[in-house]
Amino acid sequence: MIEQSKSVIVGTAGHIDHGKSSLVEALTGTHPDRLEEEKRRGITIDLGFAFLEESGVRFGFVDVPGHERFVSNMLAGAAGVDLLLLVIAADESVKPQTREHFDICRLLGIQRGIIVLTKTDLVDVDTVGLVRLEVEDYFRESFLARAPIIPVSTKTQAGLIELKRALLVTAQELPEKNAARHFRLPIDRAFAIKGFGAVVTGTLISGSVAPGEEVQLFPSGQRLRVRGVQSGGKSVDRAFAGQRTALNLAGIEHTALRRGMSLASPGKFRVTRRLDARLELLASAPRLKHRARVHFHCGTSETVAEVFLYGCKELASGQDSMVQFRLQDDVLVLAGDRFIVRQFSPVTTIGGGVVLDPLARRPTLRDTGRMAFLETLENGDKVEILAAMTDRAILGLRFDEILARTGWLEPEIASAAKTLASTGRAKAISSEPLMLLAGKAFTELHNKIFARVEKFHSLNPLLPGISREDLRSGLGRRVRPEAFRVALDDLLAQKKLEAQGEIIKRAGSTISLDPEEARAKEQIDKAFATAGLAVPAVKEVLSKLSVESRRAEKILQILLRDKVLVRVTPELIFHRDALAQLRDRLSVFKKTKGDRISVPLFKELTGISRKYAIPLLEYLDRERVTRRAGDERVIL
Ligand SMILES: Nc1nc2c(ncn2[C@@H]2O[C@H](COP(=O)(O)OP(=O)(O)OP(=O)(O)O)[C@@H](O)[C@H]2O)c(=O)[nH]1
Ligand SMILES: [Mg+2]
Question: Does residue 239 contact residue 156 with C-beta atoms inside 8 Å?
């Protein structure tokens, strides 16, 4: 990867008419207002963009409207901002949207900012001093407490050099964005350029993107190819996190693209309508009722959501709580994403927070572990988070789900999984793809399998064991085949169980017959042995026994399994000695009379009726003792 100069997204914020757009123009030479209506009315309605390269730092400016009616546009621009320029006119000081925009930036987790006092040419020095004191006081306990406060005038150019210097100093203090993470670009504009086709723009919040790469559009899931990439207004080989980015996309009309959609690395993420989060209600907001409807803003997207409060009926002003949002539309959000919540009506900003679980389950009373789980998601390290996720996945947790829920990189998942497996907190029940089962669940599965085998033995003392398939299906659908296989293999390796082909039995178990059963077994054996080929009816043999029919049937099964008896047709059973003798006789016949034998000759040789002779011959064919040739058999 080529060494990148630092890229910083600077976002303006502040009350209407306080001079945000004028300031962006004074700093960059570009007036950010683009729309005809904006020019006519002299106000900003939608987002505007401008660039500045200064001492090796590439600043991408996002200029937002101050009008309270356009806060939702402001929100789309604020996502991805690294450095806030909070614009306050010296002749008006702090006003409602100064506060609202500031609240939004704080809730979005913006870490750094500069407070700019504009229009200083309209007031005297004392007023500037007074506004400065007011501002210092207002932001004392916030992330702007130590922010530089720079008085400027775009009319006289006063303070602009100081402001540029402050921008550079603050930019140096910002941490480098990690471009190695998964690519994600919330779309803030979509349009067509003649001869190029669809173009989208946005702040690249994570990862990087290059021409030729495949990306996935959300919420539709459509895969698209990137034809060209621009950042800072120039074509580039690759755009990186922290840059304003424009992508020329192949395979789609610009009319199918809109603000609020997003692009991401293909095949990794899933849209959601249900997410768990930490919500903070602003002190200025009225209290929030359980199941209230709100406007939910995340990235550049906006939808309506129902708020499910965990553990309280009402959230008081200035308080926070774990909540679930039930969204009206599919949205791509990842754990750690910040969001803003606005009151349904009248529409004002009332709070915001952090997404903890983007693919949350429906809330249920039975789910008592959810709070602890969410706290782990909020504060835990990767190993703790993965352990908690695995513990809650009764069926096991697959690699693709881990990625979609966390947004972690593949090696991060592999390393956390390895740590979990090595400490026994989870078991890898499959490796390609990786699937984890909680250590506790795995032990339980062990015990369940073992108990089922035990139970089978006690209910079926005359059977050697249970078939693999019966064992697995008896565990219910909440056990994945992979988990069953690994747990069973474990038990076999530990020599707690034994396998004989498809039959699983307790290690060392043998069938024990009581004296009555043993006698019955001998009687059956003898009845068939003495009958030779003129076998008796099975029913008749069994009915003569002293044991009841169910047990008699089982004893018969044992004899069949041990191949003492051979079932030739469902009704016809022969003793193995009788069949061995028959083979001998046939080979003598072959030697003395030739290798062909007809049905009548076979009847004569064996002394049995046609009723028995035909199935017996067919059996011999199957056993490759004879082969049918017209009306005759060839003795092989
Ligand atoms: N005298 C004086 N006027 C200024 C200064 N900065 C901006 N203005 C004027 O104030 C008015 C509003 O400026 P904008 O830059 O459009 O204000 P804005 O904050 O972008 O307004 P919205 O985007 O609509 O919220 C314009 O008429 C500007 O010419 C300044 O430093 N001095
Ligand atoms: Mg403006």
Answer: no
The pLDDT of 308-317, averaged and rounded, is 93
Would you say 26 and 20 are in contact if contact means Cβ atoms under 8 Å apart? no
Residue 147 to residue 385: CA distance in whole angstroms: 35
In short, whether 248's Cβ falls inside 6 Å of ligand 1 is: no
pTM: 0.80
Question: Mean per-residue pLDDT for 274-296?
Answer: 97
Would you state the structure tokens that stand for residue 473, as one six-digit string? 């299906």
Residue 14: what residue type? G
- Within 13 Å and on the Cβ side, how many CA atoms surround 53? 10
- 8 Å CB contact between 60 and 51: yes
Distances (CA, A) of 238 to 51, 171, 228, 261, 588: 17, 22, 9, 21, 87
Q: How far is CA 568 from CA 581, 599, 601, 615, 617, in A?
A: 16, 17, 21, 7, 10
Inter-axis angle of helices 370-379 and 382-391, nearest 10: 160
State the average pLDDT over residues 72-79: 94
End-to-end CA distance of the chain: 75
Facing residues of 53 across strands?
A: 58
Report the separation in Å between the CA atom of 137 and the middle of ligand 1, taken as the mean of its atom positions: 24
Distance CA 23, CA 157 (A): 10
Judge whether 561 and 500 are in contact, CB under 8 Å: no
Q: Would you say the CB of residue 295 lies under 6 angstroms from ligand 1?
A: no
Residue 73 Cβ < 6 Å to ligand 1: no
- Quickly tell me which residue has 């008085």 as its tokens: 151
- The CA-CA-CA angle for residues 427, 431, 435, to 5°, reads 55
3-state secondary structure (DSSP) of residue 372:
helix
d(CA 383, CA 261): 32
- Contact yes or no for 312/290 (Cβ under 8 A): yes
- Ligand 1 within 6 A of CB of 31: no
- Sequence-ordered list of residues with C-beta below 8 angstroms from that of 201, at least 6 positions apart, any chain: 49, 187, 188, 189, 190, 244, 245, 246, 247
Distance of CA 198 from the midpoint of ligand 2 (Å): 27
Q: Are 131 and 93 in contact (CB under 8 A)?
A: yes
State the DSSP code for 175: P
Q: Is 272 in the pocket of ligand 1 (CB under 6 A)?
A: no
Dihedrals φ, ψ of 419, to 5°? -60, -45
Kindly give the distance from the C-alpha atom of residue 17 to the centroid of ligand 1, in angstroms, as a whole number: 5
Q: Which two tokens stand for residue 569?
A: 């047709």
User: Residue 523: CB partners within 8 Å, gap ≥ 6?
Assistant: 541, 544, 545
Q: What percent of the chain has pLDDT over 70?
A: 99
Tokens 């990137």 locate to 226
Which residues, including other chains, have CB under 8 Å from residue 212's CB and lie 6 or more apart? Answer: 225, 226
**Of 310, 445, 465, the residue nearest 373 (C-alpha):** 310
Query: How far is residue 199's CA from residue 189's CA, in Å, rounded to a whole number?
Result: 8
Helices 399-406, 382-391: axis angle to 10 degrees equals 120
DSSP label of 67: S
Helices first, then strands: H and E counts in the chain: 19, 35
The 10s digit of each residue's pLDDT in 376-409 is: 999 999 999 999 999 999 889 999 999 999 999 9
